[in-house]
Structures are given as C-alpha cells and as structure tokens.
C-alpha cells in the first residue's frame, strides 16, 4: 500500500468546519489534526504573529496544501496567506470545491469563487492557470472526493516538481 501523504488543509473555519471534518475522516491521507474552536480562538487572541506561527508549525513537513473551497473561502486573509506560502515553498497545491458536501446545520452552500484567481504570477498568468481545482459530482460529492483525493494530491505534488 502506498504511503499516505501528509497535507495541510486550508479553509474557512466558521463556514466549513463540518464539511472539512468529513474529508479528514475519509482516511485517504494524513492531514493536520483538527483544531477545536476553543484552540483556534486562543491562537487568534495572540494576534497575527501567533496565527502566522501556528500556520508555519502546522504546514511544516507537509507535502501539499489542500484548499477546501466553500462559498466564502476566497475572501479569507489567512487562506490567502496559506496559498502564497504553499506556492512560494513549492509545495503541492490543489483546490477542491466542497459546496455539495452537507453541513448538518446548513446543508449545502453556493459554489465559491476560485481563490487562485486572485494571484498573478511573475509569468503574468493567474495562479489558477497552474493550480487545479476539482468540482466533485453534485450527486455524490462525498464519494467522489473519497475516491479521488489521494490522486488529486499526488498530481498537485507532481505538478510542482
């Protein structure tokens, strides 16, 4: 059996944590440990330096950053920071739309904007020209992600070589 990749998940905590937990629980890859709401609030109280330190520590040793794209993910400043950090450190980088995963409280949400569209590379192209975003089947998003997540991550890592 192939070794599971270690990844860092980037997402909008308040809106998408329940959707993200579904993906973490699939067991397809080794992701960063979930941070509780209380732990995240403690980190945030430390200000920008504390948040940046937390991101650095949790991204260390990860081969890929998986941006889980919900309705408002593209607006989040720390998601933007994580995307830039992953790209500059030449980590694999991939986006997965999660709007069709059901949150037990709110159901599904609208498809979010591609967060990689916001960045222009030195080549003049958008980062979205280099980073793949996958939109799982609306009829069975959970199983589509579960069956393909490891392959999407491997492709992202290979694309950065």
UniProtKB/TrEMBL annotation:
Pfam families: ThsB_TIR (PF08937). InterPro entries: ThsB__TIR-like_domain, ThsB_TIR-like_sf. Residues 8-103 form the Thoeris protein ThsB TIR-like domain. It comes from Teretinema zuelzerae. Coiled coil: none annotated. It comes from the Bacteria. This is TIR domain-containing protein.
